[in-house]
């Protein structure tokens, strides 16, 4: 008898906070959420669900149970999405920290312009021994020089542990060694030693070439380290795995 009376009270909910049973508290909370929360802060889909849940028939016990499960599932789903986004940010941060710890030596990230022969020699001799230095000898107006400078600018961003430089042949102090016929020329140094020398390097590529072509060429000779994985690529990999 008492149980039937209690059930009757809970099913007689009319939008007032007059019942203290579990189901009455749930219904009161639904109404409060609709009336008290800022409309802009509540997602339209959530607001619609709450409205439907609070206005559905109170005489159908199964419907009432179904509505209770729905709100729990909705909250759990949104909580899972927030947790997933947080987890992705954490993974990206961990990956960045790992790259910084594993990347020994200084980092560069752009194409340096060397103005004099003294700067050229200082760059080669005073840089750390573990650093690979790629120097482009060029002159304005020479076929392939502009395209190579653009390509090296892109590669400098992709390989920040490699120091990419450029210098005009006329500024090297050894213009007779770098005549227009051998430009563009690529010189690769490590530990103060010349390890590769590519004269008229544009002849190795098609009429039009890009950073990917230069990257493949340098990789053929083992002159570039393993490419770093950026955070945006980590995100794409995570999305592909879902």
What would your notes on this structure say?
51% of the residues lie in helices and 12% in strands. It is an alpha/beta fold. The protein has a 5-stranded mixed beta sheet. Helix 3 runs antiparallel to helix 4. The radius of gyration is 33 Å and the shape is elongated. About 12% of the residues have low confidence.
Unreliable residue stretches: 4-19, 61-67, 231-235
Rg from Cα: 33 Å
Strand coverage percent: 5-15%
Share of helical residues:
40-55%
Global geometry = elongated
Number of beta-strand segments: 5
Distance, first to last CA: 53 Å
Helix and strand composition category: alpha/beta
Strand arrangement within the widest β-sheet reads 1-3-2-4-5
How many strands, what sense, and barrel or not for the largest sheet?
5 strands, mixed
Helix-strand string: HHHHEHEHEEEHH
Number of helices: 8
Q: Could you tell me the mean pLDDT?
A: 75
Write the layout of secondary structure elements.
Blueprint (H helix, E strand, L loop, with lengths): L1 H10 L10 H15 L7 H12 L5 H42 L8 E3 L3 H10 L5 E7 L6 H14 L4 E6 L16 E6 L2 E6 L12 H10 L10 H11 L1
Parallel strand pairs: 1-3, 2-3
Antiparallel strand pairs: 2-4, 4-5
């Amino acid at each position: 008898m008492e149980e039937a009376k209690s059930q009757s009270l809970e099913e007689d909910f009319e939008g007032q906070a007059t019942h203290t049973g579990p189901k009455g508290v749930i219904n009161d909370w639904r109404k409060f959420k609709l009336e008290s929360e800022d409309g802009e802060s509540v997602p339209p889909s959530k607001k619609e669900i709450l409205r439907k849940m609070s206005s559905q028939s109170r005489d159908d016990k199964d419907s009432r149970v179904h509505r209770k499960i729905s709100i729990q599932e909705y909250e759990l789903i949104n909580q899972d999405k927030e947790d997933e986004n947080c987890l992705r940010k954490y993974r990206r941060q961990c990956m960045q920290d790992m790259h910084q710890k594993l990347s020994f030596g200084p980092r560069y990230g752009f194409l340096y312009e060397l103005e004099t022969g003294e700067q050229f020699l200082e760059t080669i001799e005073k840089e750390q021994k573990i650093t690979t230095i790629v120097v482009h000898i060029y002159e304005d107006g020479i076929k392939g020089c502009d395209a190579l400078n653009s390509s090296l600018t892109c590669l400098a961003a992709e390989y920040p542990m490699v120091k990419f430089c450029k210098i005009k042949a006329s500024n090297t102090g050894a213009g007779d060694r770098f005549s227009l016929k051998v430009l563009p020329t690529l010189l690769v140094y490590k530990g103060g030693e010349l390890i590769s020398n590519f004269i008229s390097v544009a002849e190795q590529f098609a009429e039009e070439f890009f950073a990917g072509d230069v990257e493949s060429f340098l990789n053929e000779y083992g002159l570039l380290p393993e490419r770093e994985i950026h955070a945006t690529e980590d995100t794409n990999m995570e999305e592909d795995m879902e």
